[in-house]
Structures are given as C-alpha cells and as structure tokens.
Amino acid sequence: MLKHIPILPALLCSVALSAQSDSLPKVDIKQRISVARQHLFTALQADDLAEAALWRDSLMHFEDSTHVGLVWDERWLFYFWEGTYGNLFDEVVRFDAQERQRLADKIPPPKDSLFEWLDRTLYEKRFDLYENIGRGFLSEEEKQFALIELDYLLRLNQQEQISGEWNKRLGAFLKRYPESRFQNYIRSNLYSESAPSATSYQVNKNRGFSIDLLLLSGRWRGELETTLRSPYGMDLGFAYWQNGWSFNLRCMFGWQKLVRPVYQDGFEWPKGDLSILITPSIELGYDLINRQKVRIFPMVGAGLSILKPPGADEESDNPPPDYYSNFLYAKGHLGSSLNADVKLKIFDGYDLENAPDNSYLSVRLRLGYNWLYWGNENPALQGNMFFFAVGVNIFGHTLR
User: Fold this and answer.
1) Residue 50 contacts by C-beta under 8 Å, 6 or more apart in sequence?
2) CATH number of 204-399: 3.20.20.70, 2.20.70.10, 2.40.160.20, 3.40.50.20?
3) Per-residue pLDDT reduced to its tens digit, 216-246
C-alpha cells in the first residue's frame, strides 16, 4: 500500500495544472500556427531534423476544418528536406482535384518566410537531393517519380513546358509504369496542358491503321522483259497493325507498252499498244525494327495479277477492237517485299518521340518481287516482276 503513496503528489500536481490551464484564456488558432511556424523555421535554419519534425507534426495537429498549418507544397518540400519520401508518396496518391479544392477553401497560414526559405534552400541543394533520391531505398518507379515531383515543386520544368519536353517526360513515365499508383496525380496535376485522363480520349497503343500512296517502278524478268516495257504507276495500301504484326490490303496499278506483238487465239495485240497492270493482294508482315526514326518490316502475300489492254471506258476516243477481250490475263500470284518507313513527324503529344509505337507521318520505301503465272496461258508472258515504290505513309492508333 505504501508503495503507491509517492504517486499521489504527482496526481495532485497534474490535476492542479489541468485546472489551471482550463482557467487560462484560449489561444487563437492563427497565433498557435504562427508561433509553430516560427519554431519550425528556426529548426530548419539550425538543420535540426528532430526539432523540425516535432514542429511539423504540431502544425498538422493544429489544423482543423477551417485552418491550414502547412500548405501542401510547403509540406512536400519539407518531406524532401528531411528525406521522408514515404510521407510524400502517401499524400500524393490521395491528392486529387477534390482534395486540392478542399485545402484551397481553408484559411491559409500567416505570411512568413518559411516557403521562400524551403524553396531557395532545396533549389541550391537540388543536385544533392537528386543524389540522395538515387541512393534511397526506393523502387525505380518511386525514384523517377520523386525526381519529377521535385522538379515540379521547384519549378525546374518551366523551360521543358515551353518546349513540350515536360509532357513527353510525363508520358514516358506513364508508358513505362502504366499501372503506377501516381498516374492519377500526374494526369490531374502535372501536365502543362490538358492531359489525357483515364476516362477521356486515349489511343490504344497496341492497335493501329495505316494508309500509304506510293509511286511505282518495275522491271520484268523472263520472257516478259522482251514483251513489255518497264511498268510505272501507283501502289496503294491499307494496313491494320497490332503488336508489331501488319495485315495489308494492297493494289498496284501500272501502265506499260508492248515491245513486241502478243498473239492469242489467232488475234494480235500489236506492238506499241498500251497495257494495264492491276494486282490486288493481301499481305502479312512483322516489324523487325521500330525505332525513333525508322521502322523496317518484311511482308509476304498473295493475290490476283491482271494484265489487259485498255477497255472502252479508258480510251473512249479510240475504242479498242472487240477481240481485245482475248488478251485479258488474270492469274494468282505470290509476292514478298521489304518495307521501310522513315519517320518525318510524330503526332502523339504526350509521349516521347523515340517511342516505337507513336502515330507518325513517314516516307515509305518498298522493294519487292512478284511471282506471276501469265505464262501458263501465253508463253510470251512467262516471267516475274521486280518492283520499287516510294511515297507517303500515315500511321495512327485506334481509340480505346
């Protein structure tokens, strides 16, 4: 029993102090915040980590439904100063538009030099902070985000905003970490212009379409080389692209004159007459290289190759003889080609230009070979076709 007696004076003293404090006038919340900020400022200048953390916690304790002890950017700069990145990450993921507005509606703290000191000090020590982040026990995603957020808080991204590099940097982060817990914060707060959100317009990077229009030049092989002049014309293609695979619908249109007459069923297709080449086909290919400035992909395909004289509608002023219908040759063919896109302009505004799956405008080059089978009907048309085509291609992604 006696061992509890020494505790009684302490209890009585505590009660007395409590009663005394209740009798004192209440201190204004603004004054409490102002005093605590001065103590925090002093601790920061003295580089006293423990004291600064204590007053930081006190300021957050003083906050209520109408007052703010530390503005969010002041608090986040403080986290960088003391190296408590976990606190920063926890607040960032909860910092949406509603939270930002809720804080903006509160009464801000009294004017002082706390923010200016933090801003100036962290700017001067930014390279040390970069090094500390790199050495910290953080995942690579957290390190990259911490670097982005520090540049944002210190307004080091202003030149990048002007050039557009800032948005591309953010896009690169979201591309590398598509499931990042920071993605909503980045989309809502960090883009210098209206950014794509999870519920707004977005493209599907795994699928796309392209269309190209090329000028065509060819060379014949076999008997065709002595029967027809070199073909010239157009090569039109429409493609569906998914995860590197391309499915194409193409059609070549060529025009060439006969070097020698062609005989069929007792009729003559005379030397010097115009002939028309039409080769609709389907092709399948895969990207071997898809880089910042170039995309290279081989393709194989099959289709229908048609060689014929001009019809009545093509030369209405001088309609061909009726027997010209005997010189219609339509046979299946096989083909292969090597294709290259030299990218001239990237269209995706929120992605790096060196990403391989951006929408783009390019010069397309095609080098290919078609195996033809007209010789099965006429020996003078035995042979194949080598071709080269160059023109413009536009590639774009589908919408999600």
Assistant:
1) none
2) 2.40.160.20
3) 999 999 999 999 999 999 999 999 999 899 9
